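Bug #2210: token dump truncated for Putative chromate transport protein?
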Amino acid sequence: MNALEKNILGKLLISFARVGLFTVGGGYAMLPMLSREVVGKRGWVSEEEMLDYYAIGQATPGVIAINVAAFVGYRQAGVLGTIFAGIGVVGPSVIIISLIAAFLSGFQDYIYVQKAFAGVRIAVAVMIIYTLVNMGRRAIKDYTGGLLAAIGFTAVTLQIISPVLFVAAVIFYALVRERQKGGE
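Reproduced locally. Full output below:
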């Protein structure tokens, strides 16, 4: 392994460890920081590619942040990049959760700990809403996209349709629409 390969692996590890360490709430709450780190700061992928990674990461099994780390890591340095990015994004959480698990049982009944968790839940909800609004602005490009998003949100929220079925239906719709465009 040459110095350039070691350098990119180190950058992947550190960048994703920073995301894993400094985002509270995991999953969707990590997406704004992932985007700033991977698109804005490092320029490893474009915003459009990041949206695609979010979509694929959500549609595949596993945690979205780990899936996105795997995609970006692979793009930058192949299988080793996937491993280093994955360790980076998960490592801080494993350490922190292990420490909390070791000490929380003695503190979880304290009122200040309960209030702190209530505050963290609010902060996580805000980060998820922020991510939703930003993704929506970039992903919904026309009236039809807005209509599909509104229908999907309503149908999934009211449990009329499974999120998996909705994703499959929208993919099918997009493919049929694209094929019709190609035939024009």
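Output looks complete on our side. Residues 1 and 7 are 10 Å apart (CA to CA). Marking as cannot-reproduce; reopen if the truncation happens again.
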